Amino acid sequence: MSGHVHFLMIAKTLGLALSPAFDVYVHGIPAKDFDTATKLARNIPSLAEVGSLQLEFKYLARATGYTMLEEQVDRISDLTSLDFYPYVKLFSYTQLAKQVDEKYTNGLLPVQLSMHDGKVITSKITLGANGDSYYEYLLKQWLLSGKKDDKFRTRYITAVDGIMNKLLGKSTPNGLIFVGELVHGKLEPKMDHLVCFVPGMLALGYMNGMPEEHLTLAKQLMETCYQMYAQMEAKLAPEIVYFNMNESVEEDLLVSPNDAFNLLRPETVESLMILYRATKDETYREYGREIMKAFEKNCRLERGGYASIGNVAKGPIKIGFTKEMESFFIAETLKYLFLLFSNDSVLALDDIVFNTEAHPLPINKADI
Prior knowledge:
The protein is mainly alpha-helical.
């Protein structure tokens, strides 16, 4: 963004220091933690962790000319897809591919992969914690390539079909559409606030030629995410909600006391910004304005900064659930609120792709 070569050199140094992490295991999937000094790797990575390195390393490869950085993350993309084409003969992935075909259809994958043999570890399928940005990056890798790398477009469409067919539910009594979690083949009506990136993802896809039904679902899920705020006493969303499926219960949203905290997360306002740019519906700006007012009322501290809330649902509002103001509040939440009320030309979505931490990366428009 600044054009200062110094920052590029720092990024290159870090990228090259992390590069050996992709060579620790024969399949190329890095461990969760990697010591750049000792080259020791440990802990099992999640799907989101191995599926959201690609934008950063691909852009770094393009900016520095170190193409191996892109090749390393492309290898991960192949392993975490439903394809596994180049690796079946080299490694024993035939059984893995069969397992995926039988259990994890429609482009949806479980949230854990073994760092030792690359096989999936039987676990839930979710677009929430540990799964979220894998799906987001399918679309964004296609966009970052200038819409030239169509394998990611295909994988994204397949995954959205899977979401529509496997993960959607409707609450009682008011029929809120939600994205649940698939556990042992059964849909659980649980939705993390993290999942509220999905309306924005679908709207961004629609802006780039995806079908109208994607935008329709985006609007439905956006309303659900807004209700996660509007129906709480603090007018701020809890970390996790459960959707009522029992006709004898009058409330659509159920919140456990352990999940009633708010960490100033960005996903809902991110989606509001993209939905507004896609539709020009002023409703989305109004929703964003309400959320910002709730942050100002409940979270802003006299000495400066903002604090998390311990309980947004019922009873006295507890300020300062944690001692930290998470960095994503400034880097993402406030940035997306600013963009929601800015002209479309400010960080235009035709020119840049936001990574999962809201850092803008310029789209490769060469030879488009």
